[in-house]
Design brief:
Chain lengths: 447, 999
């Protein structure tokens, strides 16, 4: 017996050494098993939305970069990263900027994977319609990703194929801003026919693509198309209308109201930490930042903010701290991320129309938004006064969403409004770690 | 030189046979210690003749002699004995222990070795020497005791993680910790903790009761470590626990101590009035109107004038005098065939920082049984349970107890005007945390093995063993509705159960034989199979009916998850050692390891080593030099490997789950494949010198080494446009070069009075030799880059504060007229240039005194507390301000390094800057012990064999320039960050009284 025991390891060695050393992961799967049929493809689609809604992207970080830059939010915390952003003293190693950059490219990778694999799948469970739908979602979200990169950083590297080895997608230089936007349009155009003409506020449909196109054309100053695409949504009154009062789209745990064209949904198995940065300690947050005095005054002004004053509240004495409460679902972390709301489409169309000289209809669109907020209707009648009124309306309509900063950059008003004259600061720095890791990548000037 | 030595050894091997001779009658015998244990490796020689033998593993020897001859029996660590050969042909010889430290038997890989015969570089520490320092784990007790071994506590919380490096840092992403082997069991030292305590982690080695340890052997050079091959790149720590003695009376030992711990120094914060003054000053400096300064009369809508502000001290609320207690009871003994050691221990240590407690109850059973003359079986067992109550200590505001105390501005009251708890700046109310923090963990640990040994023939032995290290780490946290974490969620609880199992099956075949009296030959072959399984189950619940319900079963919203991770290793190893006449030594070993972490084709790594030594004292030309008692030179070279610490599936391309949307399962790619991934390898060369003087009353050891690590297992940063952050690659090279010097001296050795001194000092120069891309540490304050030491700080260098403007002037490295990331520079490393210890022990009649200092010099610390506490008004009412901020520039002509306070510009908006990089050097009176042994004559009547009472103090004095309480700090268990101080509780000062009793 002992002899046998002694031999056991050697027997093991001869017969089982190889299998003893083949340890398969249980928590994750090999790349080759990732997308193989309909159900695994559906899982990867969920992964795409998850990437889009991660804390580093729309979950909190990307909107934060925009609103912290916009001059209406003060830094009230301890972290250096938001301190730099609110002070517009960004360095290329800012963590918020770095994680947004990486999260956006992770979203693009996921879209590229789907676009590469889904057409090749042969699974009777996966219908041609469904295949089209998935590719349409991938194209549309890749478009949104490049749109965000373009408005944040300027022209970027266009990565259109999935990365399988570290040498894939290397040596690609930055495209121009125009070429980057051209890719956005190309992807939106590709997505449109692949998607169903349905209403789904948490996923991409043809209607979502229209809304994104309206915004795209506004940024590109293509006023007619902006108007056209905005109208497609506004005219679909059965599906989209301004909720009244203002807070009806978010208060009392509201989700997916008619206000939303596209909002990212969060549940127990996918949360965001946005509320944490806004809420005061008394409400379990860390109030890393808060509306500044100027914004508090505007929102509390019945002639400006109207019932949008519901976006803010104040803690008990002696604290008396103002805080934002668009994101408040603690500790669930299920506050939706508002990617595009019907109010924005009204204001897009208002601006497009004003630019086209259609002042009456422009004013009507603007006043639709004002009316919903319970403020007196605007009397602006010239293009210039209308454009200014629209700019001011956006300030109080989207103070905690991804708007103010990009809006002022887009219109070229940032110097006049925020006093930032260094044009180098109109784009974010490329993360320094990327410059180190990628020889083909060049830094934006001034960083 | 090495070649010459090697040639010499070969020559000796080839002609050694000529020297063998044989005559007379055959004597056989057993050499045993006083305790009756067989003594292997003892020398048995005929007086005035060259003939000799040495004892085998069972203490047995045979020698040819004539009646009337005199046998001289000697062994290192034992008194030499002479025996006249009479009629008896079988002899039983007992050797008493000798006093000299230099003669000890040293535990080495898969065996023991006389220190005199060592070829490799090994430090051995007797547990008795170090046990008086009341810390939770033996690794911390080793601080300053073993030359070349750098030990630093991360925090002053007992049972927390320890920074432990043998001869420097060799790896970036793989582990830098040594391999710990307890009685042959490879034990886990990676924390299983999953519930965050904010930048701190538990030390799994605290599960082992130091009182059960007999000796700790630290293998440093490749000759000593290579037998552990792939596990040994960072050195090996061999722990031998106490065993009974054959043929000995049962001995009962009781050790007990009680004491206190307190924080000798805390932080200096400004008063409320000073805080207000700074904030107002920053306001004015920002160019804002004085009329709206924050601290203006309440009647004008302000917070009150500076002089009206109160000062609220919070630091003294969280630091306390902790109690320490320790009880160890052991029973040991043996018969002719059996020996046993049974131990039980309980220790309880309160941290000076409130709500942090550590306690451990442990059992120990070691048993050996001779079944026949040739077969032995035995077992070693450690069973323990360590209980911790924790707090969130370091980084992050929510629930952070030290942060809430240190960083809440001192002018802010503890209560709101309505009497409710006030909460400030993202922090919890401190009183709430002190009274409601409920975090605790229980580590249940079993470390044990069973073995069987079979003496096949004389000198040839087979051994097989099965070992297990099982650890169940069970954590729980409950945050009730008063705390920030629990208030909105109506209570929040997390339960995490982590289990880690390492099992090992091992076979060795060893052979030891002396040929022709002087050719001492040993050989070893063996193999091991090792499996590692780690699983975790996590559950979280929120929304509890009331604060009285604390278990997740009562929560209305719950989530849970589980994970599993495993890897396996297969190893074969062999070693041959030879010495001629204990004069010329040669040793070589080879180990082959295969790890499941690598893809087929790259699994096996081969790790050879060779060493030579020359005992010059044995040469004729030194025989008559009487003051010289030992002179040995050594040299070795070898290769060792590393795969610890990297992900178990690091070579695979992986997709991960859990990336869900709308509660539907989602997947995303998480890792790129690298099928070419292979072992990280360290080449080490070592030359050493041992000198013994005046009958070994002075012993000196010097080593010089060079370690070169290549094929670093590195998470190489990728361009994130690829969608991946990094990929595991063999990329980079790191060198460590160092000198070690240790001296032991019996200054006075008279009956009644003894004075011994031991001193050690080691210096290590670490350099990243090759790295394709700089890698930032987990806190980006540190960066690893080619040409610089590990843990180098990478900061904006503040040149001076302009006396004219008060603005900080930073070095514009690239001279482009602006300060950008391109202007960051390397600014010292958290690694010390040299470190060591000095111990003096005195004994006079029944009194004993030991005074032990340890020191470390040349390291830097990033004082991140100051970054927050000296932020020049930018953090207004969100962070406290320290006294040093008062040294700010105020008017033209002020010379200071604290810039003008303002929220504008670079004075306080740039991070990290060299302003907060401080010198971490220190000299510490690590421990002082004063004891008195009651005369045995007085005890005999009571049936007590010996009794000693003692006082022991630790950390009684500290010399340093650091602005925080203690420079020995680190916020995180993450191996890439070191010397980063953020809310780190300082080392406690302790005083204890104790009693040792033996029956």
């Amino acid at each position: 017996m002992k002899k046998n025991l002694r031999l056991l390891p050697f027997i093991l060695l001869l017969t089982g050494c190889q299998s003893f050393l083949d340890v398969q992961p249980e928590l994750q799967v090999d790349e080759s098993q990732a997308i193989t049929n309909g159900s695994t493809a559906e899982a990867a689609v969920n992964g795409l939305y998850n990437r889009l809604g991660s804390d580093s992207y729309y979950g909190s970080n990307f909107p934060a970069i925009s609103y912290l830059s916009g001059g209406d939010i003060q830094w009230t915390g301890s972290q250096s990263d938001p301190q730099q952003i609110t002070a517009r003293k960004l360095t290329a190693d800012n963590g918020y900027v770095g994680s947004a950059w990486s999260a956006i490219y992770k979203t693009i990778l996921q879209a590229n994977y789907l676009l590469e694999t889904v057409p090749t799948l042969s699974d009777p469970q996966l219908t041609a319609d469904r295949k089209n739908q998935i590719q349409g979602e991938a194209y549309a979200l890749r478009a949104l990703s490049y749109f965000d990169l373009a408005r944040g950083w300027g022209g970027v590297q266009l990565i259109l194929k999935a990365t399988h080895t570290p040498s894939d997608n290397t040596g690609i230089t930055r495209s121009s801003l125009d070429d980057t936007y051209a890719q956005v349009l190309k992807d939106l155009t590709a997505a449109e026919p692949l998607l169903g003409n349905t209403t789904n506020r948490n996923k991409v449909t043809r209607k979502t693509v229209w809304a994104l196109r309206a915004r795209y054309h506004l940024y590109r100053k293509e006023w007619e198309q902006a108007e056209t695409y905005a109208s497609k949504l506004i005219d679909d009154a059965a599906s989209y209308k301004l909720t009244k009062p203002y807070n009806a789209f978010f208060a009392n745990n509201a989700v997916a109201t008619t206000e939303s064209v596209f909002e990212i949904a969060y549940t127990n198995s996918f949360k965001n930490g946005h509320y944490n940065w806004w809420l005061p300690p008394a409400l379990s947050g860390r109030r890393e930042w808060a509306p500044n005095d100027k914004l508090v005054t505007l929102l509390n002004d019945p002639t400006v903010g109207g019932n949008r004053s519901e976006l803010i509240a104040k803690t008990v004495p002696p604290g008396n701290l103002w805080y934002g409460k668009l994101y408040y679902r603690t500790p669930l972390g299920t506050d939706p991320a508002y990617v595009i709301r019907i109010a924005e489409l009204y204001l897009i169309r208002a601006e497009a129309r004003a630019q086209l000289g259609k002042t009456t209809t422009a004013l009507a669109d603007l006043n639709a938004v004002r009316d919903r907020a319970g403020v007196a209707l605007s009397q602006a009648s010239t293009k210039e006064t209308l454009l200014l009124a629209i700019e001011n309306e956006r300030q109080v309509e989207f103070p905690f969403e991804t708007d103010r900063w990009f809006n002022l950059i887009r219109t070229g008003r940032v110097a006049a409004v925020l006093g930032i004259t260094d044009v180098n600061k109109y784009v974010l720095p490329i993360p320094n770690s990327e410059i180190l890791a990628d020889k083909a990548l060049t830094q934006n000037p001034g960083y | 030189m090495q070649k010459l030595l090697f040639a010499g050894v070969v020559w000796l091997l080839s002609c050694g046979g000529l020297l063998a001779q044989s005559t007379g009658t055959r004597l056989s015998g057993t050499v045993r210690t006083d305790n009756g244990e067989p003594l292997p490796g003892a020398n048995v020689v005929l007086k005035n003749q060259t003939k000799g033998a040495s004892t085998d593993a069972n203490g047995q020897f045979t020698i040819d002699a004539r009646t009337g001859d005199e046998l001289v029996i000697s062994a290192i660590g034992y008194q030499t004995t002479q025996v006249k050969v009479g009629a008896k042909t079988t002899l039983d010889i007992f050797l008493g222990e000798s006093a000299s430290q230099l003669n000890e038997v040293v535990v080495v890989g898969y065996g023991t070795q006389d220190r005199k015969n060592l070829v490799g570089s090994v430090s051995q520490v007797n547990a008795d020497e170090i046990k008086n320092r009341p810390v939770a784990s033996f690794d911390q007790q080793l601080q300053g005791r073993a030359v070349g071994v750098q030990v630093a506590a991360n925090t002053g919380v007992p049972g927390d993680g320890i920074f432990f490096r043998i001869r420097g840092t060799t790896s970036i992403n793989a582990s830098n910790d040594p391999l710990y082997v307890v009685d042959g069991v490879f034990v886990n030292n990676q924390s299983l903790q999953k519930i965050t305590t904010q930048g701190q982690s538990n030390n799994p080695l605290a599960d082992i009761n130091p009182a059960d340890i007999e000796s700790i052997s630290i293998l440093k050079d490749a000759e000593a470590t290579a037998i552990y091959g792939a596990r040994a790149a960072n050195g090996v720590v061999l722990i031998t626990t106490k065993r009974g003695s054959y043929n000995s009376k049962t001995k009962v030992q009781l050790n007990t101590s009680v004491g206190q711990a307190w924080a000798p120094k805390l932080w200096d914060l400004v008063t409320g009035a000073e805080h207000a003054t700074i904030i107002n000053e920053a306001w004015i400096n920002d160019g804002k109107p004085a009329a709206t300064r924050p601290f203006r009369p309440v009647s004008e809508g302000g917070r009150g004038l500076p002089e009206e502000q109160q000062t609220y001290d919070r630091l003294n609320d969280i630091f306390r005098t902790g109690t320490l207690q320790n009880y160890d009871l052991s029973v040991s003994g043996g018969t002719k065939q059996t020996r046993f050691y049974l131990g039980g221990g309980y220790t309880s240590q309160q941290a000076t920082l409130r709500t942090n407690d550590f306690s451990r109850a442990s059992f120990k059973l070691n048993l050996d049984q001779d079944i026949t003359d040739k077969i032995r079986i035995g077992t070693s067992n450690i069973f323990s349970q360590s209980n911790r109550t924790n707090a969130r200590v370091g980084d992050g505001p929510q629930g952070g107890i030290l942060q809430a105390a240190l960083h809440t501005p001192t002018y802010l009251p503890k209560f709101n005007t309505d009497g409710t708890y006030a909460k400030w700046a993202g922090f919890d109310n401190l009183d709430v945390l002190i009274n409601n923090t409920d975090m605790h963990s229980t580590s249940t640990r079993y470390i044990g093995n069973i073995y069987g040994e079979y003496d096949i023939t004389s000198g040839l032995k087979f051994r097989s063993s099965w070992s297990i290290d099982y650890n169940d780490y069970n954590e729980y946290e409950y945050w009730n509705t008063l705390t920030n974490r629990g208030s909105a969620s109506k209570g929040l609880a997390t339960s995490s159960i982590s289990k880690n199992t390492i099992w090992i099956n091992e076979q060795t075949l060893s052979y030891r034989k002396t040929f022709g009296n002087r050719h001492n030959f040993g050989a070893l072959v063996g193999n091991t199979f090792q499996g590692n399984v780690a699983t975790q189950t996590l559950a979280q619940g929120t929304n509890f009916p009331s604060d009285a319900f604390k278990q997740i079963a009562s929560a209305s919203v719950t989530t849970s998850s589980s994970t599993s991770n495993r890897y396996n290793l297969v190893s074969f190893f062999g070693r041959v050692d030879y010495n001629f006449d204990k004069k010329y030594f040669f040793e070589t070993s080879l180990r082959a390891d295969a790890s499941s972490k690598f893809a087929v084709g790259h699994r096996w790594g081969y790790f050879p080593s060779a060493g030579v030594a020359w005992q010059l004292k044995q040469e004729n030309f030194l025989r008559d030099v009487s003051f010289l008692s030992d002179l040995k030179v050594r040299a070795s070279v070898g290769w060792t490997g590393n795969q610890n610490g990297i992900d178990n599936y690091a070579s695979r391309g992986l997709w991960g789950g859990g990336y869900n949307y709308q509660d539907n399962p989602g997947t995303v790619p998480v890792q790129l494949a690298n099928p070419e991934l292979k072992w990280e390898t360290t080449r080490q060369t070592n030359v050493g010198l041992n000198v013994g003087l005046f009958n070994n009353r002075i012993g000196l050891e010097v080593n010089a080494y060079s370690k070169y690590t290549y094929d670093l297992l590195l998470q190489v940063p990728l361009a994130q446009s690829s969608g991946f952050a990094s990929i595991y690659q063999n990329n980079g090279e790191i060198s460590n070069r160092g000198l070690e010097f240790a001296i032991n001296s019996q200054n006075i050795n008279k009956a009644g009075f003894q004075w011994n001194t031991s001193f050690n000092i080691a210096g290590n120069v670490n350099r990243v030799e090759k790295l394709s891309i700089p890698v930032d540490a987990s806190y980006a304050t540190e960066r690893m880059a080619q040409g610089y030491a590990f843990h180098s700080f990478y900061v904006y260098k503040q040149l001076y504060v302009d006396p004219k403007t008060g603005n900080a002037v930073y070095e514009d490295v690239n001279k482009d007229g602006q300060i950008t990331v391109a202007d960051k520079q390397f600014y010292g490393s958290a690694l010390p240039k040299f470190f060591g210890g000095l111990n003096n022990t005195f004994s006079y009649k029944g009194f004993d005194l030991s005074v032990f200092f340890n020191f470390s010099s040349g390291s830097k610390v990033f004082n991140n507390n100051r970054f927050f506490l000296e932020s020049g008004g930018t953090r207004d009412d969100r962070r406290a301000i320290n006294k040093n901020q008062l040294n700010r520039w105020q008017k033209e002509g002020d010379i200071t390094d604290v810039p003008r306070v303002t929220t504008i510009g670079n004075n306080y908006n740039l991070s990290p800057t060299s302003r907060f990089v401080e010198d971490g050097s220190f000299l510490r009176l690590n421990s002082l012990v004063f004891g008195y042994s009651i005369p045995k004559s007085a005890l005999r009547k009571l049936g007590i064999a010996s009794a000693r009472v003692y006082y022991s103090g630790s950390n009684l004095w500290l010399l340093n320039n650091y602005q925080g309480p203690d420079p020995e700090v680190n916020v995180t268990g993450n191996p890439t960050t070191q010397g980063y101080d953020l809310g780190t509780p300082p080392q406690p000062r302790t005083a204890q009284f104790g009693l040792n009793l033996t029956f």
